[in-house]
Write a structure and sequence with these properties.
The protein is mainly α. It has 22 helices and no strands.
Length: about 550
């Protein structure tokens, strides 16, 4: 009886708060927005899929698909499980508002009743994102197999939903059982290593999670054992929901404060703040003792500053950067083998890798007062700070190229891998530079009054600020398409790829030039605006802002 009362009270409180928040919104408006977004998304995916027009898989490629898809998808699930274990050991994955922590969770009500809805929302959100991504991947695979799209879309959606909900499920269970960090790390690493050992066909190692990847192939053959992992995932989700009473209140309080800031940063499209808050959520700290030390006589002050920052990267960040490099390499291989949309995944992975490499540069942007206090022009100082991040990105690109070349073992693989490595990582870093510099304050003119722009111009500028860094990052993955088309026409893939790389190099050089000249260009633009405003006021006798 007490639990029923607790549930009713919590539901009434949440309903009242939701009504106050949505008082100015009509349900049919929300339904119409959802309908428009879903319709536009489905039509866009269908049109893009038809426009890409990738070639059909050959018989050998279909055989490789049946051989490697189960262990590879299982490896993705193992990685998600490893990340979920670590997140749960750090107090995740649930995050509630500060008012819920301070009042609701400290009240004499069942903690399970108070946390059931946030936990269900977390599971539902992850499952829906995975379902959408899996459905897109399934229909792309069905097109390349020239088969019926609905079965492949359905199987991809089911696998994607399991993958998407697995993170929250595993993190919730790990938090409930109070798994320690070293235990989570050991379990996740062991599971991931075991599953990765099942990928090489010559090793004959059965993967513990390969049955989920086998579920992708159900449109071509059916194995009843493939349903075991989805059922286990449902049971674990139920166990996690049942154990909500054992969640740590201190961890919830800490996460609630950080997640509220994280959501605000996401709405403002401030990825730099998002990265910093994510590091705080994972308790990521720089090393007190650096990995190495640069001799005193080597390098300028700016170079030494960058090297010292990189030398204190923690192990978790280096592992994350290695995983991002591996994702970019796998996406490049997939694009070369015929899956053109994979260049988007490659560019996004390189973009996030660039954000990690740009830590010395980003710290100068975060502390503009110190940068402006130095007797040097800010543009030149920022350009000098790009040297060390560029070298770090090149190192990770070389490691990824070496891994891909070793996997294939041909001379062409070695040449093509190292030729494509630098454009990918440097274009991703260039996109990250544009994103980080978006938060850099612009210089102001003496006596300037307002920087307000008309809504039409301001909206277009915000869209451009959001998309332009991502487009620059993805541009570095385009040379692999030129190499693939040349190989399909029985021509050497290196010259066409090199021609596109020259264009990518010009884009990267343009970003560096923008970092150098940004303040100067904006000062001239503001001066022209102020001169036009003064001329308009002199002619018409009223402020230019009323134009």
């Amino acid at each position: 009886m007490t639990h029923a009362v607790d549930t009713a009270v919590v539901r009434a409180l949440r309903t009242a708060r939701q009504r106050k928040r949505l008082v100015s919104l009509e349900w049919f408006e929300l339904a119409y927005k959802v309908y428009v977004i879903a319709f536009v998304g489905i039509v866009a995916i269908a049109l893009i899929s038809n426009w890409v027009g990738d070639q059909l898989l050959t018989e050998s490629q279909v055989a490789d698909l049946h051989l490697y898809a189960p262990p590879v998808v299982g490896a993705v699930l193992a990685l998600i499980v490893a990340l979920g274990l670590r997140a749960g050991a750090r107090g995740g994955p649930i995050s509630v508002e500060s008012a819920d922590v301070q009042y609701l969770l400290l009240a004499p009500v069942s903690r399970r009743a108070a946390l059931a809805r946030p936990a269900a929302q977390q599971l539902r959100r992850g499952g829906f994102i995975g379902l959408a991504a899996g459905a897109v991947g399934g229909q792309l695979l069905g097109r390349r197999l020239d088969d019926a799209l609905i079965p492949w879309t359905t199987s991809g959606a089911v696998v994607g939903a399991v993958l998407g909900a697995s993170f929250a499920t595993v993190a919730l269970v790990a938090h409930v059982v109070r798994l320690r960090r070293w235990q989570a790390t050991m379990l996740g690493a062991a599971l991931l290593a075991w599953q990765c050992c099942s990928i090489p066909a010559d090793w004959n190692v059965p993967g513990p999670l390969s049955t989920l990847g086998s579920l992708v192939l159900w449109p071509s053959r059916v194995h009843a054992v493939d349903l075991v992992l989805p059922v286990v995932a449902l049971l674990l989700a139920g166990a996690g929901m049942y154990g909500l009473e054992h969640l740590s209140l201190d961890a919830l309080a800490r996460r609630s404060a950080l997640v509220s800031q994280l959501r605000f940063a996401v709405t403002m499209r401030d990825l730099r703040t998002v990265v910093l808050l994510r590091r705080q959520l994972s308790n990521e700290q720089h090393r007190t003792r650096p990995w190495f030390r640069l001799p005193q006589r080597l390098g300028t002050a700016v170079i030494r500053r960058g090297v010292q920052s990189v030398a204190r990267f923690p192990v978790s960040r280096l592992v994350r950067m290695a995983l991002l490099t591996a994702i970019a390499v796998v996406a490049q291989v997939a694009a070369f083998r015929g899956t053109t949309p994979a260049i988007v995944l490659s560019g996004l992975a390189a973009f996030v890798l660039g954000l990690e490499c740009l830590e010395p540069f980003a710290q100068e942007v975060d502390q503009t007062d110190r940068c402006d206090a130095l007797p040097h022009e800010r543009g030149w100082l920022l350009v000098r700070h790009l040297v060390v991040p560029g070298m770090v990105a090149a190192v990770f690109g070389a490691l990824g190229a070496a891994g891909a070349a070793l996997a294939f073992g041909t001379s062409l693989a070695w040449e093509l891998s190292f030729l494509l490595a630098l454009p990918v990582v440097w274009a991703g870093s260039a996109g990250a530079v544009l994103n980080v510099m978006a938060g850099l304050p612009s210089p102001t003119l003496p006596g300037s009054t307002s920087d307000l722009l008309p809504p039409e111009i301001a909206g277009s500028r915000e869209v451009l600020r959001t998309l332009w860094p991502l487009l620059v990052a993805v541009s570095g993955s385009v040379p692999v398409i030129a190499a693939r088309e040349a190989a399909e026409d029985n021509r050497g893939p290196l010259p066409p790829a090199l021609q596109v790389i020259v264009a990518v190099a010009l884009v990267v050089a343009g970003v560096v030039w923008w970092a150098r000249k940004r303040d100067e260009i904006r000062m001239k633009g503001r001066a022209l605006w102020a001169a036009g405003d003064a001329e308009f006021q002199a002619r018409h006798g009223r402020p230019g802002g009323t134009r």
